[in-house]
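Work Package 3 (structural annotation) set out to generate three-dimensional models for the target panel prioritized at the project kickoff. During this period the team completed the workflow that converts sequence records into discrete structure tokens, so that structures can be stored uniformly alongside our sequence database. As a representative example, we reproduce one entry of 652 residues exactly as it appears in the project archive.
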Amino acid sequence: MFGEKVTLKEHKLSVHYFCLLTSCGVYQRGEEDEGIFGFLVEDIKQEARRSARLTCFGCKKKGACVGCNVRSCRKMVHFPCGRKQMFVSQFTGLFPSYCPDHSPSQSLCTGLDISLPRSCSICLDSIDPVLSYSILKCPSCHTSWFHRDCVQRQAHSAGLFFFRCTLCNNKENFQEEMLRMGIYIPERDASWELEANAYAELLEVYKRCDALTCLCNNGCTHSAKSGWFEVIRCRLCGSRGTHRKCSGLKLDTKDWACTDCTQATDGKASLVRSPQGGPRRSLLSKRHRPSSGGLILTPHKLCLSGQWRKAFLSCACCLDFLLFVFFTVGCYLSRFKDIDQTPLPNNLWDSDTAKEYFLKLLMQQIQECVVFEGPDGSKNLALDSEALREDLYFDVGCLLALSLVHGGPPVGFFSRALYQCLFNYPANRPLNVTHMTPDTHFTHQITEAESLEELKEVMAVSWEYLELAGCNRPISSLKEREALVEDLVSFTIITRMQLPLQRFREGLQTLGVFDQVQLFPSVFCGVFCEAGDHLTAQKIGQLFTINFSEQEVKLKRETPVVTFWRHFLLECEVGRSSISLQDLLRFATGSAKLLAVSGLFPQSEPESKHLLLPVTSSYQAFKSSMEQYTFEVLQKIVMELDGNCLSTKDLV
């Protein structure tokens, strides 16, 4: 309530920390180790003498030292009396205080429905949504309301580094607003981090025999350093153990799996290597799918198949973190669509390239997951009951965070509305119907209704959803449509999606990604919302500078080839060629040793960054030469890669 109480016996002086900070006539003129927190003893005594002549506005006794910061206001109080009289003391800057008549206040967000029942987001008791001295709200999400005493206790517990909104997780704006409203935030770590040996149990190793019949004379808790009665822990979960003798294991057995893990891995748990094991990993699952591609993740087990297995096994040493997370978190991604089967060499590249390829495949599958809806490049969260039951929103957020931290591709498919709902950027900007997923909701039909009768007809068809959203009200004119649409947009994008958004945010907190994005939301907006540059014929053409031969005879033959080249790029872009712009770029910038060919075929000279075009008399001959040789070279690269003839640098 009043801060730390400090007593100086030699000066016969006691003072509360908050009383010292908020007193009008004393300032911190010394160093931190001088006097009391930098306040000199003589200054404190002088302030005590000054306040002894002033009468408290609350208790009417002498000794009032806290005054309203407005010069025209003469109200003075003791600090404890000020709390009772609803004075607001700001613990920042010069530590000003304000009486109830001049204290700062909060304002309601336009369009916020305060008729809905609300509860304190900290103590969860019911709360009246009326802003006052004892009722505060979050300035970012406007949906998190709390008691002043509750948020003050949270600030004392969380400290400066962990104090944030319990609903939207905003930290910067939330702390600034709470300081303005008189909440004291101690500049220290969280209380649970300061507790001695708070996490000591995490260092304890499970040492107990869980066999049905323990054969050890010293009991099931006895564990020898070696031999028959050494407790061997389950290598998958680590939460079960057994003596070698009690489970009929051999004397040199070190790998053992408990009954639960054995059943979860179809009886083959002993084949699963731990994350600290060697390069060989056989990851098994009870689920099987007919396709050879795709990623199947089930609780505490991982199944990789097809090209996923190749990429994952090649980057095993770099993705130990990923394997560990898959085994401990237990993601539910079995409903991901299969990946298109791309031809891959039998021997994948080095671990960095395989890791990059694996994360690229992972990002493609996440984008097609059932938790997202909408067009490519602008997806919103979809409400899926099965995904909620399986906690898929958390798992997808976790995997996105892992991919970003460990060098995966940018996300690039979030809509601006989804990014704003997650990270409140741009801040306090209202959402409208254009932010909703197109062609998925009747709200668009409401906005397109041209007459009152048509509007009522649309509302009558969807009355159940309107009832659920609290918007099933009589409409007497088209002017009321705008307010109806605002309420529907707020309910559809924010209110009904609170739980998916919350779990998705918690998943993104993996490895601190969510916190970093909130610190720099404008910078990360391009990572989450703007897809990578689309390869076009114009961009490919701009990569090269045309150099003609100096001989006049050759120059006349080469001039038409420039037109052929540009026309060929356009056909590659629109799909009228058997090779794509990506194939052409890979051929043009590769550094592989190519076949010796004549001047009728294109040649890549990566060392000099040159592309020698075939000189032909017609466009068809030019196109045929480009397609034929580019395809042959790319096939040769794959074959040489398969035989370990090329390095990763050559491939890139």
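Residues 269-349, 591-601, 641-652 have pLDDT under 50 and may be disordered.
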